Amino acid sequence: MTNPTPAGSLAGRREWTALGVLMLPLLLVSMDVSVLYFAIPSISADLEPSGTQQLWIFDIYAFVLAGLLMTMGSLGDRIGHRRLLLIGAAAFGTASLAAAYANSAEVLIAARAVLGIGGATLMPSTMALLRTMFTDPGQRAKAIGLWSGVMTAGIALGSVMSGVLVEYFWWGSVFLVNLPAMALLLILGPALLPESRNATPGRFDWLSVPLSMAAVLPVVYGLKEIPSEGWNVRYVVSITVGLLFAALFVQRQRTAASPMIDPALFRGRGFAPSVALNLVSAFGIMGSAYFTTQYLQSVLDKSALEAALWALLPSVPIGAAAPVATALVQKGVNRASVVTAGFAIAAAGFAMLAFAGTDSMWLVLASCGVLAVGAVIVMSQIMDLAMGTAPVERAGAASSLMETGSEFGGALGMAVLGSIGTAVYRHDMPASAPDVARETLGGALAVADRVPGLATVAREAFTNGMQGAAIAGAVLLAGAAVLAAVTLRRVELHTPQEASEPEKVPA
Fold first, then answer.
1. Residue 6: how many CB atoms within 10 A of its CB?
2. Left, alpha or beta for 8 (phi > 0: left; psi -120 to 50: alpha)?
3. What is the pLDDT of residues 408-443, one digit of tens each?
4. How many other β-carbons are positioned within 10 Å of the β-carbon of residue 479?
5. Which terminus of the chain faces fewer neighbouring Cβ atoms within 10 Å, N or C?
């Protein structure tokens, strides 16, 4: 028998070892979001994809992942999170092998889509199993802090790893690194990981699957395109259509006999605020990343690999952020105060970014580090609050909602802050500049050799835009700090005894 940890008891060496095994697929799933940053030029030279195919090679993974998170979280609650995790690991490994040796753009796009499906099974399953293994609130908080740190670090590490691998091997190697971790999970998972599922889940609501995807995908697509293309009618319509389907999805969950996402989750004290505040923290992280990556490459004129290596520096303090926050809560500091402080720290990071000039690399890196520390403090505490509030048998659905919120928040951050920065950039560019230069900094640098002084003006305009977006980000996160203080002040977690225990299933 492989059984969940009894409610309220302390996890032992086996559970902590299992957590280490779970961190491997989580790291790789988060890395795959950014692992193609430096591989795309080599892929383009080898497979010769069209412009549209190149975009799909890059974006299909994130789109499929975001669209299926809620479906897979609910499915895991029904068939068992360990079972779904192992199925996802097999699919992820197989798709990684297919992607590594893809001989056409079509095959690579299909493999990346299957990677997205596998990633959608792995992410909510790891959190749901963590909730099952660590029923003691203190241990669960520490485990979730590690989960949050690994998740955030993976996105930063993905781009660097791809740069190093492409430098010394061929582009397919960025996918082959997934295989050992997935093989280890398939070997050790059945022995170390408990199985848990909802004992009385009801029938699976198949109609909610297309409704959830129709709600998520158009919104994420529109928000991702707006920063680079502007508020094009096509993207506004896409977002509007997605929001309409979101309303239909919510109505379906309220009326279905066995909904994919049980509305009762939102009646748990603290769950709804957790979803909203988690979305805002993702807004801050991804909104700032939109500017800082371009700043390092296009303003400071560093190579892509140099920029990625420098961008690792802000990740260094992230490892200590979540454990420190968890220790403060366990020593009696009110969680609302810790989350409020996290938002205030993140807002201070944006405020620092507002003072950056065209030659302020260390200030920009420091501001990114401060912002990331604040965001990770928020995310670790908010995730612990949400998972502690949610019953164990609905842990997959709860986790998938939090992660879908992060996807929305990240896309929204890039859209809103990116639009602010773009508006300032275009306002500050001289009317005599070529049209392509007035659109983006990249366009200006492409024609800078034909217009004396254009590069300098464009870099200053971009930096001004970054400053404007940073001010907006600081104001938003300061508002989130106030919101956290108000909404979380009286939130109390369910005790482990109040949360229902999962069904015990033979290994």
1. 11
2. left
3. 787 778 778 888 888 888 888 888 878 778 877 777
4. 13
5. N
Cβ proximity of 31 and 161 under 8 Å: yes
The continuous run of DSSP H or E covering 505 comes out as none
* Structure confidence by residue, pLDDT tens digits, 146-188: 777 777 666 667 667 766 777 777 778 888 888 888 888 888 8
Per-residue pLDDT tens over the stretch 67-82: 788 788 777 777 787 8
Residue among 304, 348, 285, 293 nearest 462 (CA):
293
Asked if 408 and 286 count as a contact pair (C-beta separation under 8 A), the reply is no
Pair 84, 136: CB distance under 8 Å: no
Query: Among candidates 94, 91, 112, 93, which has minimal Cα distance to 43?
Result: 112
**Residue 391, token pair as written in the block:** 């019953």
Q: What is the pLDDT of residue 41?
A: 67
pLDDT band at 293 (very low <50, low <70, confident <90, very high): confident
Helices (H), 80-169: 81-100, 105-133, 137-168
- Which segments of 244-301 are extended strands (E)? none
Question: CA separation (Å) from 48 to 42, 54, 61, 104, 205?
Answer: 9, 9, 19, 8, 41
The CA distance from 174 to 35, in Å, is 7
What's the pLDDT band for 212 if we cut at 50, 70, 90?
A: confident
Structure tokens at 325: 């926050």
Identify the residue whose tokens are 């992230």: 318
Question: Mean pLDDT, the chain, as a whole number?
Answer: 78
DSSP reduced 3-state for 489: coil
For residues 225 and 280, what is the distance between their CA atoms, to the nearest angstrom? Answer: 19
Q: Directed axis angle between helix 51-79 and helix 81-100, to 10°?
A: 160
Confidence at residue 347, expressed as pLDDT on a 0 to 100 scale: 93
SS3 category, 67: helix
Question: Hey, what are 338's tokens?
Answer: 């810790």
pLDDT at 348: 93
Tally of residues, the chain = 507
Tokens found for residue 330: 């366990």
Q: By C-alpha distance, which of 358, 210, 335 is closest to 277?
A: 335
Q: How many CB atoms lie within 10 A of CB 185?
A: 26
CA atoms within 13 A on the CB side of 237: 3
Residue 441: burial class (beta carbons within 10 Å; 0-12, 13-18, 19+): buried
Distances (CA, A) of 258 to 74, 179, 206: 11, 37, 10
The closest of 109, 161, 168, 128 to 26, measured between CA atoms, is 128
pLDDT category, 235, cuts 50, 70, 90? confident
Mean pLDDT (whole number) for 346-351: 92
Note whether 132 and 81 are within 8 A (CB): yes
